[in-house]
């Protein structure tokens, strides 16, 4: 197969490669990067492709292997080794709970403004703040889910307006 035929067939696989890349990455930008990397590897390894074999399977295998290698590299980069006694660094909390004086004042101001909200806005807002899902709030308060969403939205708007400073 000539280089021109190879390139022509490779470009003909673009739509299928795009769909496959999106199914692997679940992100359009990452999928486009994966396609580009696959094309680069395929073109640089064209001499390894055997004529009269399945080009599509060969290209898709390159893409799959590239994705797997990228994933493994990412996992390896994000792995933390803790050689301290009793795994001190891994067991240490990542969140600092040290409160500064100004953060205490700000939190108190926010609590006061939330308490000033009318019950129909404050209750859904606080439930959502405490981790309830919209559906759970709607079921608990006997409201439509759209009503719950709009009340939470308006609560946020009122709080932002009252806490502008």
Q: What is the element layout, followed by pairings?
A:
Layout: H1 3-12, H2 14-25, H3 28-44, H4 55-77, H5 88-91, H6 101-116, H7 119-129, H8 134-141, H9 145-162
Helix pairs in contact: 2-3, 2-4, 3-4, 7-9, 8-9
Write a concise synopsis of the structure shown.
This protein is mostly helical and 165 residues long.
Give an account of the 3D structure.
- The chain has 165 residues and is mostly helical.
- It has two domains: 3-77, Rna Polymerase Sigma Factor, Chain: A (Orthogonal Bundle); 101-162, Arc Repressor Mutant, subunit A.
- The protein contains nine helices and no strands.
Multimeric state: single chain
CATH topology of the largest domain, which one? Rna Polymerase Sigma Factor, Chain: A
The CATH architecture of the largest domain can be given as: Orthogonal Bundle
Q: What is the number of helices?
A: 9
Q: CA-to-CA gap between the ends?
A: 70 Å
List the main descriptive attributes of the protein structure presented here.
mainly alpha, Arc Repressor Mutant, subunit A, Rna Polymerase Sigma Factor, Chain: A, 165 residues, 9 helices, 2 domains
């Amino acid at each position: 197969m000539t280089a021109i035929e190879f390139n022509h067939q490779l470009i003909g696989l673009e739509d299928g490669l795009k769909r496959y890349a999106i199914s692997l990455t679940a992100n359009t930008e990452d999928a486009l990067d994966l396609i580009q990397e696959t094309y680069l590897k395929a073109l640089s390894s064209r001499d390894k492709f055997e004529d009269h074999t399945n080009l599509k399977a060969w290209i898709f295998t390159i893409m799959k292997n590239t994705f797997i290698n990228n994933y493994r590299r990412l996992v390896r980069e994000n792995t933390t080794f803790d050689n301290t006694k009793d795994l001190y660094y891994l067991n240490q909390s990542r969140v600092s709970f040290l409160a500064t004086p100004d953060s205490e004042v700000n939190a108190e101001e926010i609590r006061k403004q939330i308490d000033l909200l009318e019950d129909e806005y404050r209750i859904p807002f606080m439930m959502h703040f405490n981790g309830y899902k919209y559906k759970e709030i709607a079921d608990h308060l006997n409201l439509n889910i759209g009503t719950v969403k709009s009340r939470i939205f308006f609560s946020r708007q009122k709080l932002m307006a009252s806490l502008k400073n």
